[in-house]
Every structure is written in C-alpha cells, then in structure tokens.
Amino acid sequence: AGRRLFEGFGGVTVLPLSLQWQRPVRPARHALSWLRARGVPAVITQGLRPLGAIADAVVARLGPGRVGASLAGHTTEDLPLDVLATHLGALCADRALRPEYDEPSLRWMLNVAERNEPDRVLRRRLVRDPHGEIVGWFVYYLGPGAESEVLQLLARKGSADAVFDALLADAWSGGTAMLSGRLEPRMVKEMSARHCYFRHTGHWALAYSKHPAILQAILNGDAFLSRLEGEW
Q1: For the chain, what is the domain count?
Q2: Range of 50's domain?
Q3: 149 in Cβ contact with 123 (< 8 Å)
Q4: pLDDT tens per residue, range 57-115
Q5: Which of 143, 178, 180, 203 has the smallest C-beta neighbourhood within 10 Å, fewest atoms?
Q6: Kind of pairing, strands 75-78 and 206-207?
Q7: How far, in Å, are 16, 33, 80 from residue 180 at the CA level?
C-alpha cells in the first residue's frame, strides 16, 4: 500500500534495484546454519561442522566459480575515505547519474552505518590491477560465520570480474558463510558466472525527483546508486 501511495505522488519503483543477490561463500556452513534455524538440534549441526569445513575448503579451491579465480596480479588494501571521495567520479564516468562525496559527509555516513550494525565489522577495501591502477572497491558488513552484507560495490568498466573475485576472497578470509547485497545491474553477468542467485526479499527501491531526466537515468540503469545512497 505504501508503495502504491508513493507512486501516486509521482514516485517510481526501481525494479532492478529491488532485487538482492546472494552468494554462498561457505555453502556447507551456510546449509548447517539454515538447518539449525529450522529446528535441527545443535548437537547434530555442531557435529557436522568439521566435515562442512573440509567441504567448503575444497569448493573454494577446486569448485566452479572458485574464490579468487580472476585475481591474478590484482591486490587489495584498505580504502581511505579521501580515495573513495575523489576517485568515484572516474570509476563512474560512464554513468549519467552518480553521487558526489566529500570526506566529512562520508565519515558521517559510515559512522552511522557502523552504529546500525555494532555486531559486524564495516570493511572498506580497494582493488588495484597489476599496474597499481585503482579498478574498484567494496564496502560491506563482515559477519564471520554468518551473512555479510555489501553496501557498495564498484568496478571500473572491464574490471568487474576481478573486483567481485576480490570481494569473494576477502569475505572468505574473514570467515563469512554468505554474501549478499542489492543488485548492481551492470554486474549481473559476472555475478551469474559466480553462481550468485537473485531474489526479491520484500523491500522495494523507490525513487522520486522533480526532474524527469534523473528518474529516467535511474530506470534505464544509467545511474550508480548503492545502499550508501539510501536512507539511514
């Protein structure tokens, strides 16, 4: 009802951004958590954990869509706020609509994000290619042994494979069982190739502007909008 009312006042529902992607990083660990949440006794799920850990390690190294498959020569490091603020425009140069950040607003926004999830670590990681050039980054809540949620995922044109693999590798090293985030329409191909699945979880992405060109850019997928640009 709320969505219909919003649309009645000139807002729009952005269907692609209303979808969520999910990618099991430790499938066996995730399956055990799923079983435990549905009433399977803890003594059983805990007893199966050693076997699950072995299975997850094998899948990560040898399975299809294995972690870090296209990372050759790429490196990851901490993402400073000044880099995030000054390089976003260059990485999004092919988008008609993109946010503009400055360090104070970013610091405030990320502080709010950290306060909203005190039990998870907010990680910011920068990805460089073999020549040291910045090709993307990711910001996400790391939940060791549980689900990790991506707030922002950005890759330079032609580098989506490497950036997404860097995210998978970082989440694996942090102990996460499942990665999820809001759909990034320009990375659907890379996500699908890595066995992500897509679903609607009941939340809608809604947009409103008095300027039709802005709404059209959002609806056409010609805008970069991450969860950091939503309401906090």
Answers
A1: 2
A2: 26-66
A3: no
A4: 766 665 545 555 557 789 999 999 999 999 999 999 999 999 999 999 999 999 999 99
A5: 203
A6: unpaired
A7: 15, 16, 23
